[in-house]
Amino acid sequence: MSEKHLQTGDDLPSYNEKLRLFAMRFCPYAERSVLVLNAKKIQYDLVFINLDHKPEWVFNFSPKGTVPALEYEQGKAIFDSNIINVYLDEKYPEVSLQSSDPLRRAQDKMLVEQFAGAQSAYYTAAFNAQALQPNMAENYHKGLELLQKEIEARGTKFLHGDEPGLVDYTIWPFLERFEALPLLGKAEFAIDKSKYEVLTNYMDSMKNVPAVKSYALAAETHAKFTESRIKGDANYNMLDSSAVCCMRPRKKKE
């Protein structure tokens, strides 16, 4: 799989008669759909998009040019990670990722909604630090505390049960990125194991889930991409080996 992000002027790759997900390698929303596809062991192609210089054809699959978008049939697509993931779970029920209990499904959706405050605080801390307000770190930790209490209350290894489900794959991409905040100088956003033992144990379990392990990136990598984006030159292709091998070394300053 190429890690290269296609951009304005690049051709649309040929269609290979299977599901195709348009994504961005560092996007948590796109990761949600990648994890669901991985968990269900569905064959699919993955096409990465440069969101600063979008190829013209991406708008044929996602009206606003956002990712993820899932091409389920040649030239036909659905977009938005929540819509895509529910579709995948219903279309491919062999590995069900949602509870059969309507109340539990509703509780999962409410948990995701309540966790949104922590996600919002993360975006501000990571990409717009000058706009940080004291209450944002507080809201961030309220989200972590809520999540930890829910894990404790459910008494299972994962939020879904003994195996991770849609609720886990929806929340995880942000937890993965939260670990980069201390590396970006935001120590107040650290997930301290002494305070969040249950949550950090849950996170360790998620890191070892095959669907997650095959796609996850280290906190250092997320921090490096974030720094490049803050500088106004997001390094989308930092993981693409062909791009790395062809980079010319910088001349040393005299």
TrEMBL record:
Cellular component GO terms held in the UniProt record: cytoplasm
GO molecular function: glutathione dehydrogenase (ascorbate) activity; glutathione transferase activity
Domain GST N-terminal: 17-96
InterPro entries per the UniProt record, alphabetical: Glutathione-S-Trfase_C-like (IPR010987), Glutathione-S-Trfase_C_sf (IPR036282), Glutathione_S-Trfase (IPR040079), Glutathione_S-Trfase_N (IPR004045), GST_omega (IPR005442), GST_Omega/HSP26 (IPR050983), Thioredoxin-like_sf (IPR036249)
Biological processes per GO annotation: glutathione metabolic process
Entry keyword annotation includes Oxidoreductase: yes
Source organism, top-level taxon: Eukaryota
Oxidoreductase keyword on record: yes
Family matches, as SUPFAM superfamilies: GST C-terminal domain-like, Thioredoxin-like
Residues of the GST C-terminal domain: 101-234
UniProt entry keywords in alphabetical sequence: Oxidoreductase
Family: Belongs to the GST superfamily. Omega family.
Protein name, entry field: Pyrimidodiazepine synthase-like
Species: Vanessa tameamea (Kamehameha butterfly)
UniProt gene name: LOC113402913
